[in-house]
Amino acid sequence: MSSALTARPRGRQPDQLRDLSIVYEGLDRVDGSARFGFGSTKSLSSVSGPIEVRPTLENPSQATLDVQIRPLAAIAGTDSKALATILKTVFASSLFLSHHPRTLVQIVGQALCGTESGSGLGSAGRGWNATLTASLVNATTVAFLSAGSVPMRGVVCAVAIGRLQADPSSSPILILDPEEAELPRLDGSGCFAFTFSAVLPGSPLSAENVPRCALSWTNYTTAGPFDVQEFKRACDFAKKGAMEVWLKMKESVCWLEKSAPPPRIRAESKVEDDETPGEMEVDDDKVEI
């Protein structure tokens, strides 16, 4: 395998994440909100609930979970609606919605990047790449931790895996957290979401004091035939990255617990410019992003 193929921006190793950033936004009229980023790949999410629900959506046995995903620009298209359905499935299994019947729990996600790849821009067929999807899953988890109003079975952490292969005769190389500049070189990729919980079977904590985890969802696909062994390697690779995300979330919660509730609480591994270019207009009654 040539070094040109395996070389990564900023000299990252195949199993190295970019700098993780978590910002508790403190948005008005929501119960919890947070921004999560892998380097410059960032998403914003807010959680409202349990709140009053329309009679037509009322569920007598559990809370109704509503997910809305918004691209960086334009209106939500097919890709955003499909991603909203995925997030609803992932988080429905990690929340105790039966504790709040006849109410509504609303998630609103917003892409904060996508100018290079088209991901998050709402363009038909260009969608949300795996890393941007992972950042949105993590931002939603941190928003739930910030809200503290909906009990959780476990903490959902997600990372993206990319696949590089020079030719069919060589073994593919897996890379963690592919960024926009690497996307054209990939012949496979996917987001892996894991649920971390001490109630899962086995030892409560690993050697790194991280709870056990189980794969909740993935959309990993490749250009070639499906290989079970390769998928297992990708899953193990992603699990290590998800553990780093969990540790970062734990660190950010310590900041949240030790501080008074100011408008914004930052917990970042590297100081970055968090300004988002342009103004975003939102007509939602529950969330201001």
Automatic annotation (TrEMBL):
Transmembrane segments: none annotated. Residues 271-289 have a biased composition (Acidic residues). It comes from Pycnoporus cinnabarinus. This is Exoribonuclease phosphorolytic domain-containing protein. SUPFAM superfamilies: Ribonuclease PH domain 2-like, Ribosomal protein S5 domain 2-like. The keyword Cytoplasm does not apply. One of its GO terms (biological process) is poly(A)-dependent snoRNA 3'-end processing. Residues 260-289 are annotated as: Disordered. It holds the Pfam family RNase_PH. Belongs to the RNase PH family. The keyword Electron transport does not apply. One of its GO terms (molecular function) is RNA binding. GO terms for cellular component: cytoplasmic exosome (RNase complex); nuclear exosome (RNase complex); nucleolus. It is found in: Nucleus. InterPro entries: ExoRNase_PH_dom1 (IPR001247), ExoRNase_PH_dom2_sf (IPR036345), PNPase/RNase_PH_dom_sf (IPR027408), Ribosomal_Su5_D2-typ_SF (IPR020568), RNase_PH (IPR050080). Keywords: Exosome, Nucleus, rRNA processing. Residues 16-148 form the Exoribonuclease phosphorolytic domain. Gene3D superfamilies: GHMP Kinase, N-terminal domain.
